[in-house]
Design goal:
Elements (H helix, E strand, L loop, with lengths): L5 H14 L12 H8 L3 H13 L3 E4 L3 E4 L6 E5 L10 H8 L4 E12 L2 H7 L6 E11 L2 E11 H4 L17 H7 L4 E12 L2 H7 L6 E11 L4 E10 L3 E5 L6
Parallel strand pairs: 3-10
Antiparallel strand pairs: 1-2, 4-5, 5-6, 6-9, 7-8, 8-9
Helix pairs in contact: 1-3, 2-3
Length: about 250
């Protein structure tokens, strides 16, 4: 088995010392030089370990002051399930209500946006074909906890009452219900989650540290004819949210 990188070993050591209450929430950690001397590593190794723990919400950095043990925070539960959308109403609002929070979202839509290569491949269309793009910020008690950028083929909904996801009589009804209004049955969704670091723009919008750990979910909805009808990039901050998948079990 390959040897664990030094910064991961130091991160584990810092977690252990926090778990054993050597440092309590709000305590300032010793300097990187001191920790490095105690653990037999250089300051750069300690810095990488601390950056990892900051991204995970275990530590927090304060400009000009040092690194501190983060206060425990209740993580928002984000439930992923295409089946939940069919019941009407917003699953996100229902999830936030269950946590005693107010759930809402802000959005902006652009029609006739040329599809970039990756989006075109996911939607099974040609590069440059027109799409409806909607950018969302999902809020819990007014605080952003999730970002999403949705793409729909323009030729699929053009001239209908559902062409704008957040406009018209079916605003906010969700992909499944909106497509049903124009005779398209959405049969399933495919999601591909992967961890990565937040971009500078994402960190700014979410109010998290630059390069903090997020989960990036690539989701695509398919009709019962096998056509992709919508694809989205969903970004969830790991320190603020936990992702739970609800899997329907049929007979």
């Amino acid at each position: 088995m390959p040897e664990q990188p030094p910064y991961l070993r130091i991160a584990d050591e810092l977690r252990r010392r926090i778990a054993e209450h050597e440092w309590e929430p709000g305590d300032r950690l010793p300097s990187r030089a001191q920790i490095g001397q105690e653990c037999g590593v250089g300051e750069n190794v300690v810095r990488r370990a601390q950056e990892l723990l900051i991204a995970q919400g275990v530590l927090e950095g304060r400009a000009g002051s040092g690194t501190y043990v983060a206060e425990p925070r209740q993580r928002v539960r984000v439930v992923r399930s295409s089946a939940r959308e069919q019941g009407g109403g917003s699953p996100f609002r229902a999830d936030m209500q269950a946590l005693g929070k107010s759930g809402d979202w802000e959005s902006r839509t652009e029609a006739k946006v040329p599809a970039p290569a990756e989006i075109a491949a996911r939607l099974g269309i040609a590069v440059g074909d027109l799409c409806v793009r909607t950018v969302y910020e999902f809020l819990a008690d007014g605080r952003p906890v999730q970002l999403s950028t949705s793409w729909e083929p323009y030729d699929l909904t053009a001239g209908t009452l559902v062409v704008l996801p957040e406009g018209g009589p079916h605003a906010g009804a969700g992909v499944v219900n909106r497509m049903a209004e124009i005779g398209i049955t959405v049969s399933h969704a495919v999601e591909q989650p992967e961890p990565r670091q937040a971009s500078a723009e994402e960190a700014s919008l979410l109010g998290i540290q630059k390069a903090a750990l997020v989960t990036h979910i690539r989701r695509t909805y398919y009709s019962d004819q096998g056509r992709p009808v919508e694809t989205a990039d969903i970004v969830v901050p790991a320190a603020l949210c936990e992702i739970v998948y609800e899997v329907p079990v049929g007979r």
